[in-house]
Amino acid sequence: MNNDLTSTQKMVIKSTLKFRILFFLLFGIVFAGFPDKPIKIVVYTGPGGLIDITARKFASVSDKYVDATFVVENKPGAGGIVALKKVLQAPEDGYNLYACTKSNIAKFIQVGGRDYVNALHWTAMLMADPECVLTNVENDIFEWNDIVNDALQNPGEQNWVGPAAGGLDHVTAMKIWDEYGMYAKWIPYKSGGKAIAALLGEQGVAYVGNPRDALGNPDLYIAAVSSDERLEAFPNAPTFAELGTTTLNNEYMWRGFALKAGTPPDVIEWYTNLFQQVTADPDWKEFWEKGGIDVEFIGGDEFTDIVKQDVETFEYYLTKSEIISTSSNNGLSKYGEGTPLLILTIGLITVIGLAGYLIYKSSFSNTFGRIMVIGFFLLISIVFYLQSFIFPVSGEVGPAVVPRLWIFALVPLSLLLLVKTLRNKEGVEHAGPRVDIVLTFIGFLVVYLLVMNYVGYFLSTFVFMITGMIYLGYKNIKVMLITSATWIVFSYIIFYKILFVPLPLGKWFERLF
Amino acid sequence: MELLSNLGDGLSYVIGVVPILTIILGVTMGIIAGATPGLSPSMGVALLVPFTYAMTPTLALILLVAIYIAANYGGSITAVTINAPGTPSSVVTSFDGYPLTKKGKPGMALGVSLVASTIGGIVGTLILIFFSGPLARVALKFHPAEYFALAIFGLTTVASLGGKNWIKAFIAAMFGLLINTIGIDPISGVSRFTFGLSFLYDGFALIPALIGLFALSEIFKQLENGKFDSKAADSGKQEWPTFLEYWKLKLTILRSSFIGTIIGIFPGAGATIAAFISYDLTKKMSKSPEEFGKGSMEGVAAAEGANSSSVGGALIPLLTLGIPGSASTAVLIGALMIHDLTPGPQLFISSPDIIYGLLASLLLANIILLALGFFGSRLWIKVTTIPKRILFPIIFAVSIIGSFAVRNSFFDVIACLGFGVFGWILRRYNYPVAPIVLGMVLGNIAETNFIRAVMMGGWTVFFTRPASLIMLLVALASFSVPLIQARKEKRRTTK
Fold it and tell me: Is the distance from CB of B139 to CB of B317 less than 8 angstroms?
């Protein structure tokens, strides 16, 4: 082994600290073999989104340059947090590549603050598309200057539509408004597509997003683009500079890749080379530039600086729009979180439990179950109601309004039912004689799920199915084995192999695969 | 006439060995995806998108659309046979389909659901072909206030679903609405009721809740009753509907198909609301409303006709405007983009072959669905003859993989089990569980549009816009009529 070491590594071994020797030895092995197994590209959306296409296109272009297998794994959820957790849970060995966009930064800042941003090494930014303001030619006003004049005359009256509040597009809109000293309403939609529908339906004046969104629909008009020069793909769209503002030339959406912080430098170098090669690839260039997207390689250091700037911008605007708030401002808010909420919840459960005990002992004992269910609904209502006080109050209808609306309907209905139940003691319960079987089965399921972590889906499911069948009194061993084995094979082929559902293989077995 | 000749051209693209084989493949996979609890139509489509990268755009679309159609139907198979709706919209099919199975007549439910699905699918496609332009323009004018009113209308169907248990039905619906608010608020972006737990940021996924509330709670209930010696149906002779029985349902199926297409058009509202509203309306118009919930063939037809025709409706805004009408069509947009096609009005001009090929393949896929479903029904009806001692463990295994596959998340598996236990407890005390699902489906539509409407037009906007006002009044009527009827009924029986 020693013979294989490079001179730098020999020097390192001479250094005193034991763990450093160990670290660099391991690291040498990684370097020698990277990649020696498939690399997962973790995508934070479902298949079909732009970032998913980026990841898949990257995987196919990479084939030309490196002898590595890339597997795209979709981990949608919470604006990228689910995918982030997936990458952070894996070791920092470079086998999990996070396909990231600027929107992730907004979400990270909202959910986990700077810690989430710093948990990643921002390896390379591969493309940027300028943000733009889209309008509808069917609207009364659709030229940029008309929109600004109208907004200045009627502050806060204009409806701007776009994706989620606090996201990149919303923040860009706020920046634009600041620049022009204007103010409008941001009406968020579940996706850019839905927001464009609202723009086409003349329910909004402007939409902020990607110039690509204007393709395919002649009513959509690019009123202003945030870039230095006009875009090749959209030569008729004016830039903000042409419209009189020089500071809005650099608002863009970026896409790139990140690794877990602490990934060995040699692995990062391997990726950096690959990213450079892919960026220069003609196939890659053509694919993106057709849609007006700039392809450009920006390496780790510079990318990290860009991310830092983005963090500051998002922090500023998200605080300003009260999406991240530092203080609560409601009377009951101190009961809405932390220890007070916990104590209150435990208190309420105790009260309900005591009431249940009294009912059980009283002449109402046959209503016990029914009352406990109502108690559960009331408990949820009260806990959620108190929690709703910690939500920031913003705009006309804040985030607390609608949950409270449901609570205000749920509580009286529950109380009405409670009165009816107490009055009508002999109501029907659909209790069967064999609750024990149900509880045993629930026990089986819990054990099955716990064991699955260690021995994986396939083995635990096989054992669970056989156990379940035997417990229910089935006798024919042959049929049981065949049925369970068939299911295992079916689920392995269909779910694991064809649909790429990453079923847990189990901690004990993972190394074998 | 240009349309017809274009459509003729379209048919010529899909009449060929490869396209027809692709449709057959897609329909088969779709039926399986729909029938597997946990694989919804949108997931079936999403999971297969990567496979279509290497295909020609037309073939890729044909495959995805065939899956989409068939998965919408497939969901009803498990709804009928084991009370495990494979898709949220087939929840409504289970209301009468499963009681029919319990009566030993799964064939009647499967037959009606297949025929209603096919006719619904074809009606939806025809409306898409002939009226997509004007309908899409109307849909665009739909203000958030109208979306909110539609959601409220959908919610009021709970009143007649619940019958004399209407309070419990509404409690269940409110509970569904409330837990739907867990997670990151779609409007303000703040996280609500997550207690700092990151797996709650996206809230509860619908599919695990659906599997738990229906499939698992049903098994728990049967285990509790000790009823697992028997089979659901005899393996002997199966009853299938006769032509006359289908003929009697013609108006129901047609009406549901229109409702389904129209509601399907509105981006985001989709199949589930359509099925609930159509079922409710059919029950109110029926000569024998007391049969509903106990095994009414009209009920099955109403649900399936509406949910299958909504596919055509959902494709209208997609093809004409490039705007997704449902989760599945959102995935289709991604698939189009991968093939360098931008959906929208331009696509009709730039690539008519693709559009008309797609429309023709929709018609063909529905016919193939009927054929495959006809033979298939004879096959999957056998599920009801599997001894429950074997069937139950299998359903558990399927449920667990299904809830995991939704987001590849173990939390969803635990949630599924939790909903199963919770649903079992609720059913013991006569709470219907379907309103929880309805609440979870409608919660987001109701809330986001409520807030958008107020932001755009103030608190009175719901009553000053005529369309919204009318829908709210209809909702009020739909809410109060069954309650008044129930009260009258009660008075009559006590006298």
Answer: yes
Q: Please check whether residue B452 touches A, CB under 8 A.
A: yes
- What pLDDT, in 10s, does the model give residues A67-99? 888 888 877 777 788 788 889 888 888 899 999
Rounded mean pLDDT, A226-247: 85
Confidence label for B160 from pLDDT (cuts 50, 70 and 90): confident
What are the contacts of B137-142 at 24+ separation with CB within 8 A? B138/B265, B139/B265, B139/B266, B139/B267, B139/B316, B139/B317, B140/A197, B140/A200, B140/A201, B140/A202, B140/B317, B140/B321, B141/A201, B141/A202, B142/A201, B142/B266, B142/B467
Q: Which residues contact A443 (CB under 8 A, 6 or more apart)?
A: none
Question: Which is nearest to B395 in space by CA: B254, B271, B198, B228?
Answer: B228
Q: What is the sign of the dihedral through the CA atoms of A250, A252, A257 and A259?
A: positive
Q: What is the maximum alpha-carbon separation in chain A?
A: 88
CA proximity to B209, closest of B489, B463, B476, B440: B440
- Taking the C-alpha atoms of residue A183 and residue A151, their distance in angstroms, rounded to an integer, is 7
Alpha helices in B83-142 (DSSP H): 91-102, 106-141
Nearest-angstrom CA–CA distance, B70 and B373: 9
List chain B residues with CB under 8 Å of A395. 188, 455
Residues in chain A within 8 Å Cβ distance of B140 = 197, 200-202
CB contact under 8 A, A377 and B451: no
Residue B348 touches partner A, C-beta closer than 8 Å: no
Whether residues B143 and A203 touch (CB distance < 8 A) is answered with yes
The two three-digit tokens of residue A174, written as one number:
């706020």
Residue A123 near residue A217, CB atoms below 8 Å: no
Closest CA to B41 of B324, B302, B263: B324
The type of residue at A488 is: I
User: Which of these, A311, A388, A376, A431, lies nearest to B221 by C-alpha position?
Assistant: A431
Per the CB < 8 Å rule, is B184 touching A78?
yes
Q: E strand or H helix at B27, and its extent?
A: helix B17-35
Q: How confident is the model at residue B237 (pLDDT cuts 50, 70, 90)?
A: low
Burial B246-266 (b: 16+ CB within 10 A, else e): beebeebbbbbbbbbbbbbbb
CB contacts under 8 A, B 275-304 vs A, are: none
Dihedral sign of CA atoms B173, B178, B182, B185 in order: positive
Q: What is the pLDDT of residues B73-91, one digit of tens each?
A: 888 898 898 888 878 888 9
Strand partners, A294: A128
| Cβ distance of A187 and B452 shorter than 8 Å | yes
- Residue B401 to residue A416, Cβ atoms within 8 A: no
pLDDT band per the 50, 70, 90 thresholds, residue A510: low
Bridge-partner residues for B184, per DSSP? B191
C-beta of residue B390 within 8 angstroms of C-beta of residue A469: yes
Global confidence as pTM? 0.82
Query: Edge to edge, what strands does the sheet with A252-260 contain?
Result: A70-74, A39-43, A96-101, A252-260, A120-130, A294-299
The structure tokens listed for A89 are 């849970």
List, for residues B277-295, the tens digit of each pLDDT value: 999 999 988 888 888 888 9
A340 at B interface, C-beta within 8 A:
no
Amino acid at B392: F
Q: CA–CA separation, B145 vs B469, rounded Å?
A: 9
Q: Which pLDDT score is estimated for A6?
A: 47
Integer Cα distance of A139 and A149 in angstroms = 15
Residues 419-478 of A with CB under 8 A from B: 420, 428-435, 437-438, 441-442, 445-446, 449, 457, 461, 464-465, 468-469, 472-474
CB-based contact (8 Å) between A78 and chain B?
yes
Q: How confident is the model at residue A425 (pLDDT cuts 50, 70, 90)?
A: low
pLDDT over 70 percentage in chain A: 86
